[in-house]
Amino acid sequence: MVKVAVIADVHGNYTALQAVLADAKQQQVDEYLILGDITNRGPAPQECVAALQAVKPLAWVIGNHEEVYRSLLNHDFVNFQNNDKAIMAVVTSAFDRQQLGSQAFRWLAERPLCQTVKISGVEVRVFHATPKSCRGHLTIPTAPQENFDALLADSTAQIALYGHTHQKLLRQTTDGRYVINPGSVGQSVSPQINLAAAQAAYVILTFENKRLADCDFKNIPYDSTAETSVAEKRQLPFQRLYTFLLATGTFTFTSANVHKENQAHNYPLLAEQLIEKDKW
Questions:
Q1: d(CA 47, CA 59)
Q2: I need a surface site. Which of 2, 53, 177, 277 has the fewest CB within 10 A?
Q3: Which residue, among 137, 87, 109, has the nearest Cα to 271 in the 3D structure?
Q4: Alpha helices (H) along the chain
Q5: CA torsion angle for 193, 196, 199, 203 (degrees, to 10)?
Q6: Cβ atoms of residues 207 and 122 within 8 Å
Q7: Using 50, 70 and 90 to split pLDDT, how confident is the model at 51?
Q8: What 3-state DSSP class applies to 171?
Q9: What is 2-277's CATH number?
């Protein structure tokens, strides 16, 4: 029997990650799979990366926020001045770069898009959003069946694991293979008010006799007030949106909200200055 913790979308929330790792240890987990977006928008990216590196995961794929790091390192950010989300990406990535250091920043940018591992004879495909892209909305919980069929269409894997949506999911492809999303460790959200507030979500998969024997979705409470204090102490950009999301489980990083924060803190000018300095 092999127990595997599947962790996604920590987003620099070390308080939540500590709660999850403590629970995984108590549950006697054997292995770990990391589905990307371990950093960005939260105050402790370095601590999160170090803690997960320490458990020696079987796989670790890139998320869309770490893909931004790659774009910055490749000097791909041009003509972004009228794009509020791009401005936010530059500002939050600069915060991460300062916290992480250049080596860890580049290491995250170099994670693979998709990996396949075999656990107890079961082939498992691991990616952030889809096997071909770590961004987009093709795999939201209410997406059409054909979108989920496509995740394993060119693969012999029996299970697809992905993150990105910050919402738990268990469903099957048309040919009966499993598609699983563990939810988000650091920024759980739900359309239902307070359903995901201060809850760190992950999943434990149990493999036995060449099959998936159990799929245990976990909701681990954590101290969101303590996490808010860390964000305040480290002067996290977009702190107001971050702390409100933690407290309510409501997705706050909408274009309208980000635009307001950009204007209130003059982030467009800061983003331009960061790109011009080119210290990535």
A1: 19
A2: 277
A3: 87
A4: 14-26, 45-54, 64-73, 84-100, 102-109, 145-150, 224-233, 239-248, 255-265, 267-277
A5: 170
A6: yes
A7: very high
A8: strand
A9: 3.60.21.10
